[in-house]
Amino acid sequence: MSTIEVLPQAPANPVEVCLRTDRLPHIWCPGCGIGTTVNCFARALLESKMPLDRVAVVSGIGCSGRVAGYVKLDSFHTTHGRAIPFATGLKLANPSLQVVVYSGDGDLAAIGGNHLIHAARRNIDIKVICVNNFIYAMTGGQSGPTTPLAAITATSPYGAYEPAFNLPQLMDAAGAVYVARWTAYHVRQLARSMGEILRKKGFCFIEVLSPCPTLYERRNKLGEGLDTMRMYKEKSKIRNGISTSEVALGASEEIIVGKFVDRDRPDYSELLRRQMVARLGDKYVEAPVCSCD
Amino acid sequence: MDNPKKQWQHADPAGVLTGTHFLDGDHACCEGALAAGARFAAGYPITPSTEVVERFAARIPTIGGTFIQLEDEMAASIAIAGAVWAGAKAFTVTSGPGFSLMMEHIGFAVMTETPCVFVNVQRGGPSTGLPTLPAQGDMMQARWGSHGDYEIIALSPSSPQECFDLTIQAFNLAERFRTPVMFMMDECVGHMTEKVVIPPADQIMIYQRRHTDRSPGEYLPYQPSADLVPDMAHAGEGYRFHITGLTHDERGYPSMNAEAQDRLVKRLKAKIQTAAAELVNVEEEGLEDAEVVVVSYGITARVAQRAIMLAREKGLKVGKLRLIVVWPFPAALIRALAGRVKAFVVPELNLGQMVNEVERAAAGAAKVLSVPHAGGTVHQPEVILDAIMEAAK
């Protein structure tokens, strides 16, 4: 009688409690960095010991906009560019939620650019993770506000010529209390940064550079996703605390990464409360956590 | 949802300004929203609607809730969806140009079944048009403005009192059907000041959020109840659900194929279509022996009232049919009337919008006369009277 050897079950990945494993495999291409950032996010969440029932993820549209669909949290896949105002409504109507906006550079900085700067100005207590792959990937690799000069994209077939945003500087100027940039190579630093913003009050912004081998690297002859990771490793310089005016991409051969801004100022709800108490005193009724039950 | 009756509860007295007031329509609309339990408003200033949120901004800090003035109408119209998913009742307020900018989020609210109210105090268009002057030019936009196939509910008040009463109804319908409701005011009604009676809270019935009574393990966000409307859960309650504007299945997961599209979009339409009879809300007067029926809504119904009176003085048999719920259009009612009246006269502050629906429903069984007006002021009653006399021939 032959015996059938039963292989032991592979130990579950600890981050699976944060993921909708019934939706896997995901839609991201081989070599794409978005999944790597989600892994970092899940690790940061678990590390934070924050109750997962209180964490909501809001995404816009695009490849990074699909993150909301894969995290096993209250998650909202909204409209193009409008993740931040949706998150603003969600947070203000239930301040006990930890609200994370997870989206891409085109979604947040182009069509959603107005909301990005105003949310930072207001210092709404939401956390923004911006995966920057330099193009609109979901729609086939068109150029956007972060596309490097001379890069070939679907809508800049002869090379991009518009200057790109320096996103950390933009967020610094608009008033974000935490601004960092990492790449998909810097998984430990990124996870640590994500943990920091989960503990920090106010509008926080992390830019994560991420390879898009299918549409950006291929058109620009930059190799596979792994080649981009090697490039990130070789060219990145960690410069914590450096002025955000010094971190524009393409200004030199270096990619400046690190935590650039970490400061404190009262968030939107605190400013609102102070003003109302000053003018209305005892008559002011703080917004309750809404429940229509 | 097992027991629909438990959804009806008295209004929260904190938001009910009981008493007799002298209010304009914009302010009355705000009081209606507060009485309905709205505790979140997001807006962007635009004439002639801004007074609604100005009053909300003044009132809400002593009631408990949130007003936020956002950077544009796209932000305002999606912030309310965020607030709803956190548990609030929420609305936004705008006029023509802002309404145009909000169209995508009307569709988002339809697709994600987010109950909320969009108030549009209509002014003359297209484009910047007549910011301070009335029109009813957005009636078809309210019905069809967002892309794709969907059904909508829209109400049209004719007085400040109705701005109060019907705003409550708009919120109740939004919750009952889990759908965005369009509240189609106009500049005249919005800026007209009249007596508004606000009853005690225990005389105002509010339809509560259709919250699921299932546990997180059993709950499917888009599993319809018997009336085709699914029950809701809110963020932070442990359900860890997913919401998307993509075509989705009962789990809320994207499901992009023809079958899922057919199932979802047809249900979204059917949940309102099958309740069309329940939704009919019209004011009728003198229809019993009418030969001519004036079909109107909003401010134009009040101008038409004068024309109807003048026509009756001339011995004409004229009836009045005022649309309060404009969408879904009461086609069955028009069809029934068309079999026994000679003609319909349809005055409106646009160049002919709802008249097309009247024609379609009448299907040739009665004449239909449009009384168009490009907006900027209201009709002269005599113009409507002339049309009634023409119709009676």
What would you say about this model in short?
Helices cover 33% and strands 17% of the residues of chain A.
Protein architecture, described:
The complex is a heterodimer of chains A (293) and B (393). Chain A has helices at residues 34-48, 67-70, 83-93, 105-111, 113-122, 167-174, 187-199, 213-217, 225-235, 268-280; strands spanning 55-59, 74-77, 98-104, 127-132, 135-136, 142-143, 178-183, 204-209, 236-238, 255-262. Chain A has 293 residues and is an alpha/beta fold. Chain A has a single domain (15-283), classed as Rossmann fold. Chain A has an eight-stranded mixed sheet with strand order 2-1-3-4-8-7-10-9, with helices on both faces. Chain B has 393 residues and is α/β, with parallel strands linked by helices. Chain B has two domains: 4-207, Rossmann fold (3-Layer(aba) Sandwich), CATH 3.40.50.970; 283-392, Rossmann fold. Chain B has helices spanning 25-36, 50-59, 73-85, 96-112, 139-144, 160-177, 187-191, 258-273, 276-279, 299-313, 331-338, 354-362, 381-392, and strands at residues 8-10, 19-24, 38-43, 66-69, 89-94, 116-124, 130-134, 153-155, 180-186, 193-198, 205-207, 242-244, 282-285, 292-296, 318-323, 325-327, 343-347, 367-371. In chain B, strands 3, 4, 5, 6, 7, 8, 9 and 16 form an eight-stranded mixed sheet that branches. The chains are: A alpha/beta (293), B alpha/beta (393). The interface between A and B is large, with 48 and 52 residues. Strand 2 (74-77) of chain A pairs parallel with strand 12 of chain B.
